[in-house]
Design goal:
This protein is α/β, with parallel strands linked by helices and about 240 residues long. The protein has ten helices and seven strands. It folds into two domains: about 190 residues, Uracil-DNA Glycosylase, subunit E; about 50 residues, no CATH class. The strands form two sheets. It has a five-stranded mixed β-sheet with strand order 2-1-3-5-4, sandwiched between helices. A hairpin with a 5-residue loop joins strand 6 and strand 7.
Length: about 240
């Protein structure tokens, strides 16, 4: 496993996409390691780019004010390490994937708190934040043998634009905190469908996400247009 110095050097020296030439320099993780919990965001903002530290701009300060009183000092990082001045593209997320997993392999978390759809999309494709928020799903990390599970909530920038989302974030943080310190799979009260919340005839994917029979047929394209065709990855969540 790479040392902390090597991981930080890998991130700061990354030139895997064109973003590195447009920012001051890539921003590596900040905080203690190893850690049971890690917080993963989208990408550095303008303030983070200036200071070389994640989650220190307006939305980052909000995130820290919500997380640290509940979870203590935790590591903070982003799926894209360079300031994009916009939402990162999938190409940029994929280019930075090695940096993300090297940092997580050093931190060795068992629980990931994911802020926003870009962070969630680095681990599971085809879902909106509103479908995933408050639910546990598998977030495998290369170099970490233990099971790693993630929970996504609204991005703090979205909360700054719409303060009504704060209620959801606080609810998600309460659910997240209840699982910290527990072994194995986080507590699943039920397997509600990610589309409608029903628990009728559930189909559970490898990520631990449940679909009712009706919306599973929709998902794999048997009824309606379907957003995502069946790709062979689905299986029973049998742990």
């Amino acid at each position: 496993m790479l040392s902390a110095i090597q991981v930080r050097a890998q991130v700061i020296g990354c030139r895997n996409c064109e973003l590195a030439a447009k920012c001051r320099k890539p921003v590596p993780f900040d905080g203690p390691f190893p850690s049971e919990v890690a917080v993963v965001g989208e990408a550095p903002g303008r303030v983070e780019d200036e200071q070389g530290k994640p989650f220190v701009g307006p939305s980052g300060e909000l995130a820290r004010s919500l997380v640290e009183p509940r979870l203590g000092q935790v590591p903070w990082l982003n799926v894209v390490s360079c300031f994009p001045n916009r939402t990162p593209t999938k190409v940029e997320v994929d280019a930075c994937n090695g940096n993300l997993h090297s940092q997580l392999a050093l931190i060795r978390p068992s629980r990931l708190l994911l802020f926003g759809g870009v962070a969630a999309g680095a681990f599971v494709d085809g879902y909106r934040v509103g479908e995933l928020r408050g639910r546990w799903f598998r977030t495998p990390v290369r170099g970490v043998d233990e099971q790693v599970f993630g929970m996504v909530t609204w991005h703090p920038a979205a909360v700054l634009r719409n303060r009504s989302l704060l209620v959801d974030v606080l609810d998600d943080l309460r659910t997240f905190r209840e699982s910290v310190g527990t072994d194995g799979i986080p507590p699943y009260v039920s397997y509600p469908c990610v589309k409608c919340g029903s628990v009728v005839d559930p189909h559970v994917t490898d990520e631990g996400l449940s679909w009712c029979g009706k919306h599973w047929a929709w998902k794999i394209g048997k009824i309606g247009k379907g957003r995502k065709k069946f790709d062979g990855r689905v299986g029973l969540f049998d742990d």
